[in-house]
Amino acid sequence: MEAEGSLCRALYDFVPEPGEQGLAFEAGDWVRVLQTAEDGWWEGEKDGGVRGWFPATYVELVDESQIENQYHNVDDSEPIRSPSPGQPQEPLPPGWQVFMSPDGRPYYVNRQTSETSWDAPLMPGSPVTTPTTPTKKQGYDVIETDGGQKTPEKTPEPEDKILQSPKKVVNNSTPSSSAKLSKDTPKTESTPNIKSPDTKTTDENNVVNHLTFPPSSSASDQKLLKPGEYSYCDYFWADKGNLPGFHVLLEKQLQGKQMTKEMAEYFTERAAAEEAYARTLTRLSQNLLASQEEGTLGDTWSEVKKSIAQEAEVHHRFSVKVQDDIVKPLATFRETFKKDMKKTEQHIADHRKQIQQKYQGINKAKAALAERQKELDQKLQKHKTEDELKKARRKSTAAGDNLLKSVEQYNISQSKWFEEMVSSTLELERLEGERVQMVKGQLNKYISLRKEVDKERGKVLGSIEDKIGDISPDKDRERFVKAHGTGQVRPVDYKLA
Compositionally biased, Pro residues: which spans (predicted)? Predict the structure, then answer.
């Protein structure tokens, strides 16, 4: 039977990878084949106009000419949907016929447009019903609507062990499919956009972005590697949006390095301000204002100007020490840090890439196993010879062994990534502690230098205080008289001889 234009039925669930223009469906869905490709992928359209590509091994073609032989036409006296008591069955729109599948599900076909649907089409102008809480009945979810009608809906079967039918196929298993999706399939409103993160949850696994986490029911059983320490090796296993958890940590470390550099720039400006202040004090100490003051007051004034010169020297030394002892260590701290950490990040990214490839290998092995099981089932149904059945069983067994091997390789790759993550996050934790302690030490050193400045300035001020205590107007008079006195003999009255 030619596939293009034919109707096919899904054998397994299929969920496209993020970024693919794939067609998602569940087992039992009906898909119209639009075109086929040599790589084993078909383009199809579901009810509602949703189009996309999917692996051909996930579906089986159905001969529409034999539909009426496979499904018995439902008589008007045997309605599929059970109306509420006293309400007549709603008629179908023109061109639509309803059939009953062997498992009891109603299937609607439009003979004029070849449109198919598991949901009953509504007459033009009919109110849209809203489903409420589903109830179980003989393996189906019976959805009761506002109008009292009930539509049987197939209950999804649980996913069992890893050898069960595959759930999805990823890009690398079909290299040419990505190009075909981008070139041959125009993006329309009916083409779904696949969004990340890629998540698949079963009873045993919770796969997110190709990493396997325990299901939520058993996640609490895990013990922290370093309990009570809030260690980085315990809290950054999952991705944050499109960023791996390790990248989040690395960004914090790089930001810390930048903050250290900015601290160095800040202290550079602090040293520059101190140096400018020292130069200003030096110029002030050389000023000649009030330099002709004499006596003890003049001596004290000279001491004030001398102390300003000494204070200028104190601030100059402080500026030099800040530059040498604080700025340089901060500015040169881990000059190769970013380069080294980028290498570590690349190693972890390589491990993630390996995990992704191995996970894709699992899905490819699942698809191959499903194909071999399908071939074996077909041979069993057609009563092939024992040799043909043995050959089919060997292929199926080999496919199962290959799947087990793929799972083992995936687990090995994830284990290597785990080890790299633990060692790298602990290294980042150590480096961050080292940086914080280094900055702490520099701040303490700054405080010590500042205290030295205050101590030396105190000595200078002490000498001024001593001089101020020596100021005495009496001594000033004595010194002035001795230096500039014009004579101590006083004039007397004039007498006539």
Answer: 85-94
